[in-house]
Fold:
Amino acid sequence: MAPFVQLHYLLIATDPVHIGTGGYRLGRVDNSIVREPGTRLPKIPGSSLHGAIRAYAARIYENPAAAGQDHSNADPDNCPVCYTFGYIKKPAPGQSPSEAGGFSGVVSIFDAQVLLFPVHSMAGPVWVTTVPLLKAAKCAIGGDVGEPPAGSAHMTLSRTSPLNLGWLMVDVATANLSITAPEGWSKAEWDAVAGRIVVVSTSMFAQIVNSNLEVRTSVSIDPTTGAAASGALFTFEALPRGTFLTMDVAVDDYRTPADRQAAFARAAQGQSKDPAKPLPGKAWQGPTDVMEAGLHALAWLGVGGMGTRGFGRLSQVGDGIKEAYGGVQ
Structure:
């Protein structure tokens, strides 16, 4: 058995998603979203995903203290959520933090990167991507095609005339291109867009994405007048609904079998911390099950800002693709 395993997930934004930077960016919107520094492509940070997934898993297990900063009240040695994501015990009087004990988590959740980005065109909505992104996601590309020339695009549409991607017009380099997702991801969501994929050059992709982000305007209401408060208008951007993203999770279960057995004694039987409430869905046999339970909750409760105002939901497409160290498992 491999000492560690990596899982590759495909996600789709079922709402606009806003993961803010906590600051301002001149020229476009007041509240901007997180971007990769080198490419300027939006992403969902692993820290945001990790926090939301852990919090939802703790709620599912009926142990909300397992999501907090101090896990002393969570019975961490016997909690599958603490085992999966790590925990720190509060030092007793006279104890140092190192004496109190704690363990690092056994799962690492990495940034979710844009794979297919929805853009309007005269042919209807299309999903824009690049050859390197498709190859990194292990998608099969039919024919021996590389990056399209500047100002043109490969596409799965049956089209010969130029196509607009938002405000940008591109020529057709290759039509009827075949792009196939890995077997575990080829579900209804992927099949719905597979015939509407446009592959552009890497140099154009960031420009297309940043020009077609969703931008919303909000205002604070003055409770006295019921009208907009003076000077309270602000704008913010978000990844649009329909964006496909890839996310990797590494599982390194370094703990002892005895530690694992103690942590999963109840969850492996389908039981939460509350004896009156069984776990919804399947029993948790290990840390991957805990992480996936929290991941599935993103489809209901979302991640990021303005979740009570129609933002944030992400759904998993298909199954996670499991890759053991040294080869596919």
The CA atoms of residues 78 and 261 lie 9 Å apart. Residues 17-117+249-329 form one domain.
